[in-house]
Amino acid sequence: MGELVFVGLGLFDELDISLRGLEEIRKADSVYAEFYTSLLAGLSLENLERDAAKSITVVCRKTLEEENGELILRQAENAKVAFLVPGDPLIATTHIDLRIRAEKRGIKTRVVHAASIISAAIGLSGLQNYRFGRSVTVPFQEGGFLSESPYSVIAENKSRNLHTLCFLDIRAEEKRYMTVKEALGTLLALEERRRLHVTSPDSLAVGLARAGAEDTVIKAEKVKNLIGFNFGGPPHVLAFPADRLHFMEAEALIMLAGAPEWVRRMVK
Q1: Which domain CATH number covers 256?
Q2: What's the number of domains the chain is made of?
Q3: Integer CA distances (angstroms), 172 to 2, 49, 59, 213, in order
């Protein structure tokens, strides 16, 4: 019987992998990795291969989603395969699907967890994790089509006095990574359409770039000011706080994310 081990790579570069994860790679017969669900901005595949003493085959979206991961599953039927994933392995639905397919074929699966942008972004912002509602992805516009889903999710969360974490679209094959500025532009356009004062120019938002790196940037401001802020290179993520804050959340946004003092007036 074979085995498929999902190994999380963490947030930024090859140094973020756990010692357990590195050991699993070293013991594997074959090693695969994908980098289309998230960006590890500082990753050196060459250094990772050197540290693990293993050759790593990078697979694309087509291999996992259109071909249902058959390349990996066939190998794992009779051998130990390590599958490397940015962040924490089972955050992306496509990885859960691959694990289910493996189990149905009698392939043993295990998971080596790692840091996720979900916990990192929430922790860095200082917003309390239990006050986050449903998260949402802000997609690139296709052919002028403007998806209202991000706006609707933020509106629903705010109606329940909850924060919203917004993932920003990634097109790894095209080397396109949505920025905070682009995401805010989309959400402002949706505000013009819906006019519920959810992502208005005066709404508070928190932008974050390169979590886990030495040059991590986090900034909380009104949308109209945040849209012009220079966050540097990707990956970026965005959060919209609830309209009412706990006093410690306000203090954290001011001290850790450079929020203006008026944020204290949001404490209820």
Answers
A1: 3.30.950.10
A2: 2
A3: 30, 21, 12, 20
